[in-house]
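Tip: read the tokens left to right.
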């Protein structure tokens, strides 16, 4: 705690100390007057409260005066993030002094914050307070420089082997006016911004934005290609299955007509045989066999090819004629 307090006051210039001591004396005066007028409560109580509040608000007032009045800066960020394909964090920005005093150095503070979106209830407010008072991790880099009022300077900080990819963070730049380093130490020199440099910075920002957009487009294209390949593979599998089903159904349909044709052919083959058996040609090739009587099963047949009821008796009583021997 002592080191933090000393480091905090080490950035104070002599007029910063005068301003803070003036506020402190004013607060002490109000408290002292409240003790003098302790018999008149309607005067002593407000004076005491006013002096006590001024003492509590003294650090915030000093911070406001230093950051928003004396050493006010404007920051144009060109890049602030982790590289896509490597664990490297880089911060590139242009700092312009728009305050009332010259700047002797700036502190780049990179703070790793607690993820408040994953918490709820009391823990959410607890981590919000910790992010403001004591973040998860803090990296500070002091950069000595000679930055006069109206001048600008470019800063670039790189952190290799960055282990906090995907976690929330914030990067701040705070400047001071007291020269802490000896004259031998190299300082960054400021320059006055012209229209050309402003245009160059705008071009750099546009180029970086284009690079980010192209990287995002590449990622989206790769994801789209993966989804398209998955969809095409699924469609091909479906087409193969449909073709196999169609072939099976076609084979079944082909086999059924063949079976029907074979049955029809068998019936057609059988019917002509019956016709040939029932309708026999009555041609007499040999004159010797002209006297042979017709068998009763053919002679007795009705025109409708129906046998009589006593066809069995007629068949049993049928006498086979004897053939005559030819003369020798």
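Filled-in amino acids:
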């Amino acid at each position: 705690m002592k080191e933090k307090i000393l480091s905090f006051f080490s950035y104070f210039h002599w007029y910063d100390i005068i301003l803070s001591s003036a506020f402190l004396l004013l607060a002490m005066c109000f408290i002292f007057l409240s003790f003098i007028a302790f018999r008149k409560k309607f005067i002593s109580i407000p004076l005491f409260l006013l002096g006590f509040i001024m003492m509590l608000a003294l650090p915030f007032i000093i911070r406001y005066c230093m950051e928003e009045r004396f050493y006010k800066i404007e920051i144009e960020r060109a890049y602030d993030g982790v590289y896509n394909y490597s664990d490297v964090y880089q911060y590139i920005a242009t700092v312009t002094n728009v305050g009332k005093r010259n700047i002797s150095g700036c502190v780049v503070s990179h703070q790793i914050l607690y993820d408040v979106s994953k918490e709820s209830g009391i823990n959410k407010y607890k981590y919000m307070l910790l992010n403001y008072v004591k973040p998860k991790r803090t990296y500070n880099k002091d950069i000595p420089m000679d930055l006069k009022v109206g001048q600008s300077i470019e800063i670039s900080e790189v952190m290799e082997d960055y282990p906090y990819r995907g976690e929330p963070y914030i990067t701040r730049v705070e400047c001071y006016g007291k020269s802490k380093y000896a004259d031998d130490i190299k300082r960054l020199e400021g320059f006055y911004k012209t229209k050309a440099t402003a245009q160059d910075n705008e071009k750099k920002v546009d180029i970086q934005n284009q690079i980010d957009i192209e990287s995002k487009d590449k990622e989206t294209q790769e994801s789209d290609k993966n989804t398209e390949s998955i969809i095409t593979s699924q469609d091909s599998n479906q087409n193969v299955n449909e073709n196999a089903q169609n072939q099976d159904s076609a084979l079944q349909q082909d086999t059924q007509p063949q079976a029907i044709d074979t049955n029809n052919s068998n019936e057609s083959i059988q019917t002509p045989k019956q016709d040939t058996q029932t309708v026999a040609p009555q041609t007499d090739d040999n004159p010797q066999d002209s006297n042979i009587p017709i068998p009763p099963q053919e002679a007795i047949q009705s025109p409708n090819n129906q046998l009589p009821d006593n066809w069995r008796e007629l068949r049993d009583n049928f006498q086979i004629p004897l053939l005559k021997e030819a003369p020798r």
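Confidence is low (pLDDT under 50) at residues 267-290, 297-302. The first strand starts at residue 73 and ends at 82.
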